[in-house]
Design a protein that fits this description.
alpha/beta, OB fold (Dihydrolipoamide Acetyltransferase, E2P), 5-stranded mixed barrel, 13 helices, 19% strand
């Protein structure tokens, strides 16, 4: 037993950890691991740490900063993925881990479940309810798509054929890790343009790309893109994928087109169709005006048949005017003669002014003589009556009362004092007699003057 132990090689901890690391990397090399992301954490350094788990185990995983942009998608807790990378160990903790180079969703089922969960959440917020009408004839059309490929060319060709309008392209990547951010930035950028600015503001916006797999179209299911489309102030048409493809941006946009060509047809009417429609409406309008004019002419003719003979009425009125004029010319002299005769009859009954004056003068003289005869007697009678009344007034006058021995007490203001109770001790008083006034002052004892 001792010989066996003596032949067993001895390793340090670091040597054993290094040997395990070499064995793992040599035995497995590049692997693909399927599992659910958990414990995700992004560090300020740019490195991303998480774990992949299933029902029976868990393995640590790392995406280095340099590989994060090429990983394909951003790790998110609860998402089932397939991670491609190298298996290695971390000697300081004696842990094995996966250095991830690429992440993919684990099948269409996981993708659809994730899309459905996002759809339900955004629908509950009301992002799918707003549907604005498209302008009838936009002056400028904005397009968000890749500058390469047939999508942009289809849109240009369709618009040039139907009704040539200026097109402003905001080039973006339509798939890959950076696609969602570029598409959201393009929608927000178009929405932020102001009318009359250096860049013309589109009247309608088309977000488009060609067909592809569910993974290829995931940028148009990204929440940032959907919120940018919902907040866009320009009417938006989505044209993503083929006719059978459906992405969440179709629910948020104002209109969904099955193809980019159909989106261009929605955005702009056909010029020839507009001209034909205008010609048809012009013909219908002209016909309606003619019918209306004819009907009005018929009504006018019927009304004119019921009107009286205007020339006859005018002739009769003219004849009456001539007759009234002739009668008026004769009536004025006759009226003047009649008034003159009446005036003469009245003047014959009038008395001469000298006669009236003589009569009035005699009446005045008679009245004067009557007044001179009765006036002295009446004056004597009135004088006697006045003297009798004066004597009666003198008997009850103020001076006569004082002359009989009475006196009047007044205060300093000259107001009569009628009650001793109202006199304050020491108050200044004036006693009025028939032959003069005496100033007194009330004694301290009540009712005493001194």
């Amino acid at each position: 037993m001792s010989d066996l132990l003596a032949n067993t090689p001895e390793f340090s901890v670091s040597e054993l950890a290094g040997a395990v690391k070499k064995t793992l990397e040599g035995a497995f090399g590049r692997v693909r691991v399927r599992g659910e992301i958990t414990e995700f954490k992004a560090y300020a350094s740019g490195h991303q740490y998480f774990a992949l788990k299933d029902e029976g185990g868990k393995i640590r995983a790392i995406i280095w900063k340099g590989a994060a942009a090429r990983a394909g998608l951003k790790p998110e807790n609860g998402v089932e993925v397939i991670a491609t990378g190298r298996l290695t160990s971390y000697p300081e903790r004696s842990e094995y881990q996966l250095i991830v180079e690429r992440l993919e969703y684990a099948g269409a089922g996981a993708l659809l479940a994730r899309i459905e969960a996002l759809r339900v959440r955004l629908a509950a917020e009301g992002l799918f309810t707003r549907k604005r009408p498209l302008p009838m004839l936009p002056r400028v059309i904005g397009v968000v798509t890749s500058p390469q490929g047939a999508v942009l060319q289809d849109i240009k060709t369709t618009i040039a054929r139907r009704f040539p309008r200026p097109i402003i392209l905001w080039p973006v990547a339509v798939q890959g890790e950076a696609a969602a951010g570029q598409i959201a930035a393009a929608i927000n950028g178009f929405s932020a343009l102001v009318a009359g600015g250096g860049v013309p503001r589109p009247d309608v916006l088309i977000v488009a790309r060609g067909g592809g797999s569910l993974e290829d179209l995931m940028a148009f299911n990204d929440e940032a893109v959907l919120r940018a489309a919902a907040a866009c102030t320009i009417p938006l048409i989505s044209a993503v994928g083929h006719e059978t493809d459906t992405t969440l941006i179709d629910f948020v946009s104002d209109r969904r087109a099955p193809t980019p060509t159909a989106a261009a047809e929605m955005a702009i009417p056909a010029r020839l169709e507009l001209l034909a429609d205008l010609a048809q409406k012009t013909a219908r309008l002209e016909g309606a005006v003619l019918r209306r004019t004819g009907f009005a002419r018929l009504l006018l003719s019927r009304a004119g048949g019921k009107l009286p003979d205007l020339p006859g009425i005018l002739g009769l009125a003219r004849q009456r005017l001539d007759d009234r004029g002739e009668r008026l010319g004769l009536a004025l002299p006759n009226y003047a003669a009649l008034r003159r005769a009446g005036l003469e009859r009245l003047s014959a009954r009038l008395r001469h002014p000298r006669e009236i004056l003589a009569h009035r003068r005699n009446a005045l003289d008679l009245s004067a003589r009557r007044l001179e005869g009765g006036l002295p007697g009446r004056l004597r009678e009135k004088r006697v009556k006045l003297e009798h009344l004066a004597a009666r007034l003198e008997a009850v006058s103020y001076a006569a009362v004082l002359a009989r021995g009475f006196a009047l007490v007044t205060n300093a203001a000259g107001a009569p004092v009628s009650s001793a109770a109202r006199i304050a001790p020491g108050a200044a008083l004036v006693v009025k007699f028939a032959d003069g006034d005496v100033a007194v002052k009330a004694a301290p004892s009540q009712g005493t003057l001194f």
